[in-house]
Amino acid sequence: MKMLRFLCFAALTLLAACKQESATTTAPPDPKADPHSFAQPNLAVAKHLELNLKVDFDQKILTGTAAWTIENPGKVNEIIFDTDNLDIQKITIGKDEKEATYFLVAPDSVLGSALRVEIEPTTPKGQTDLVTIYYSTKPDAAALGWMEPSMTFGKKLPFLFTQGQAILTRSWIPCQDSPGNRFTYNANIEVPVGMMAVMSAENPQQTSPDGKYSFKMDKPIAPYLVALAVGDIAFKPISERTGVYAEPAMLDNVAWEFADMEKMVKTAESLYGPYEWGRFDVIVLPSGFPFGGMENPKLTFATPTVVTGDRSLVSLVAHELAHSWSGNLVTNATWNDFWMNEGFTVYFERRIMEAIYGKEYTEMLAQLEYWELLEEVESMGENNPDSHLKGNLAGRNPDDGVGNIAYQKGSLFLVMLEQLTDLPKWDAFLKSWFDTNKFTSKTTEDFLDFLKENYLKKYNVTANVDEWVYGPGLPANLPKPVSSKLANAEKAAQNIANALPDTTGWTPHEWVHFVRSLPANSDAATLKKLDAQFKLTTSGNAEIRYSWYDVAIRRGYVKEILPAVDAFLVKVGRRRFLMPVYTALKETGHVQDARRIFEKAKGGYHAVSRNSIEELLK
Ligand code: BES
Ligand code: ZN
């Protein structure tokens, strides 16, 4: 048998030996190389994936094959894939499935293991054009959220969802896992009869009788955008090209909540050009989903915590939709360019929200996040390189770059640029950026070149671009959102010792700001009175609830609310809510409670949330 499994247990010296033993490549390393991927797609590149997987809920594994159509411009004798914690059984090359020699290099703690497969650079029949990897995932694969029936809405069937961003796809599909790299895919997924499978692809709208589903994504996408969800799922249309998926018992509520989806798509198209992905659907997942939303192409994944019954958190849908341009159409080339995905998207989200829901409402959203940005920048300290827009994440987990710098400083950078001319000029410029670069991945420098040529020079304006992108903190020409509604809520909070506020007509955003503005010296008795009146501890809105817990715990109002905090932390898996509450418990001498709750809750958390909290509480 030709298979050779190479496991280097001791770290660096042996690793070097591994490298020497493996096939050699002569071309120099790509100067644009992604520090979070072992692949060298400039030499040998995987262009199309045929994925065949069977979903086993009992063992919590996926088993099957990933067959990659490859090209070999470097005429090299190996192709490198990223993997993390995969169980590889066999690899073949060519359509005749000749067994291949491969090396699985010892894992790096952040990046996983490089998988080096020997290929034929030139044969009488030509180059190797197909690499088929037979494999299974492990039960603790980082991308996979295996939810027990008790963690679902219906409590009858289990649920599985994947989360690929930033570098987790490699834990369920061996792939060249860099956002600078794009491929098309088809998939055949087999699930237990009675369940539906959906992907970031053309999707079924009905449960199949035999549990078999086929998918097709014929536009080239980045690896972090391959996604799968399996469970008791049903579909309801909103318009011709938009609709929602959810567990049957919540489907109608979800459809009501997101009734404006078509309006959002039309608005987005009127700004930055046609929606290129065919359908735009949203699936609402079990509450263990670690994010608010994830922009998987054609099918956004969303947390159930945005289904509030009052449509107050639909900006999340606008945000994920906006990624259909900034992120999915034009993608950050590496995770150091992450601000180009999120900063553009927050900017675009606000434009969509303003067009549909008005200026006052949108300013409220912008103002809240502006304050979050100020707070974060302050806590980072002066001259912290992590406050540059252009990231420096080599050697670290790209998760470290997820924060208000990329999102809010990034979006305000674009607002600053917008204000240099006028909306028609700026919008035409942005539209041409998307149009010129669609279905490609771009670096920060690519954007800055384009900006200088097609905007700054063209309209004869200047800006401190380098300070914004490569400098720390917040430049002096930072645009500052202002919301009079939030200013009122803030006044009410400052006056809390004297009077309970008149909260008629308050949106959850005003509530959130009110709660966050409660004076640092307000005592437990005042908070208790407030709580008795407004039932904040059991609010149906998770944004209010986590903000309130954070504030209440820090002001000593803990004992009474701990059972509700406990229930919230067990039920909800969204990291943005969990982290502040666990942090508040830890920092106020309640770390034992935090650990006890975490032990109980962690089985229901996705690895993304679990790892962050584990780190916090250790
Ligand atoms: N793409 C992000 C989520 C993400 C970022 C996952 C980085 C993994 C790594 C998504 O578009 C997002 O920003 N979600 C936000 C909600 C949004 C309304 C700001 C979230 O989940 O909180
Ligand atoms: Zn986003």
Radius of gyration: 25 Å
* Beta-strand fraction estimate: 15-25%
The number of helical runs is 18
Distinct small molecules bound, one entry per kind: ligand BES, zinc ion
Helix content: 25-40%
Record field, number of beta strands? 21
Nearest-integer average pLDDT: 94
Give the CATH topology of the largest domain: Neutral Protease, domain 2
Low-confidence sequence ranges: 1-26
**Mind describing the biggest β-sheet?**
7 strands, mixed
- Total separate domains: 3
Going by CATH, the architecture of the largest domain would be Orthogonal Bundle
The geometry reads as: globular
The CATH C-level name of the largest domain is: Mainly Alpha
- Judged by helices, strands and strand pairing, the structural class is alpha+beta
CATH superfamily membership of the largest domain: Neutral Protease Domain 2
Distance between the termini: 46 Å
Main sheet strand line-up: 5-4-8-2-1-11-13
Keywords:
618 residues; alpha+beta; Immunoglobulin-like; Neutral Protease, domain 2; Serine Threonine Protein Phosphatase 5, Tetratricopeptide repeat; 3 domains; 5-stranded mixed sheet; 21 strands; globular; disordered N terminus; binds zinc ion
